[in-house]
């Protein structure tokens, strides 16, 4: 009787644990791992650079970006679109030229076949006589067959890979997080209120409590649901929105009227808990082991 252990190799059944362990050590398949809090960005960090924003802006969907980083991203996408458009136009021009050449070649072939047919009318009687007399040779290289190349290893007979057809590129720039169309004019400047503590002389990046709500003075963190007021760009807590702003729909900072569209929920940073983060699983795809 064998030992009852996960690493037992004397059993007749290939267990799931052994299969998973061998797959991880083989270098093939997909690796899945739960992402921890240290691997996720903070609420005040850029979605592209994952660093604290110096000049923060926010999209309509609540994703925070550093203005410099998002401008570089949009510029890179515009350059990529220009490059792909040139390749597309180049291929389109090439296909049009090939189509014209093929049309001219077909017309020339029709003309040659017509002239050949006119010439062979006179010699039909002689061909019939030759057929009645029998073939002059039994060689497989006669009657023009010597010009054919039946050998498959000859380069002219090998199959050719077809050229990949390039589709017309999309000129729209999409958000790297939400996948929706991203426009510079739709970005809204964001204003964080710093926590003013005269006893804490550390730099802003080192501080754990960096920002607070300008209305309730609650400290903002990854576990605190926040929102951005579109008109002023101030970051407030969702509790402040529910309990104070939604009562009269008036901004307490400047006493202006607000609507529900002026409240943009800020996408939270990484807390490590699935209740605050939709996807906490990292996936790395490796080559597949094929039989």
Protein architecture, described:
A hairpin with a 5-residue loop joins strand 7 and strand 8 (235-237). With 291 residues, the protein is of the alpha+beta class. The longest helix has 54 residues, at 67-120. It contains 4 helices and 10 strands, in the order H-E-E-E-H-H-E-E-E-E-E-H-E-E.
The geometry reads as elongated
Overall average pLDDT:
81
Provide the succession of SSEs.
HEEEHHEEEEEHEE
Helix content: 25-40%
Structural class category = alpha+beta
Number of helices: 4
**How far apart lie the N and C ends?**
34 Å
Strand content: 5-15%
The neighbouring-strand order within the major sheet is: 3-2-4
Largest sheet: 3 strands, antiparallel
Radius of gyration: 36 Å
Count the strands?
10
Low-confidence stretches: none
Write the layout of secondary structure elements.
Layout lengths: L15 H11 L3 E5 L21 E3 L5 E3 H54 L3 H10 L54 E2 L3 E2 L16 E2 L13 E4 L5 E3 H11 L14 E4 L14 E5 L6
Antiparallel strand pairs: 1-10, 2-3, 2-4, 5-6, 7-8, 7-9
Précis, in short:
This protein is 30% helix and 11% strand. The chain is an alpha+beta fold and 291 residues long.
Task: Label this structure with key terms.
291 residues; alpha+beta; three-stranded antiparallel sheet; single chain; elongated
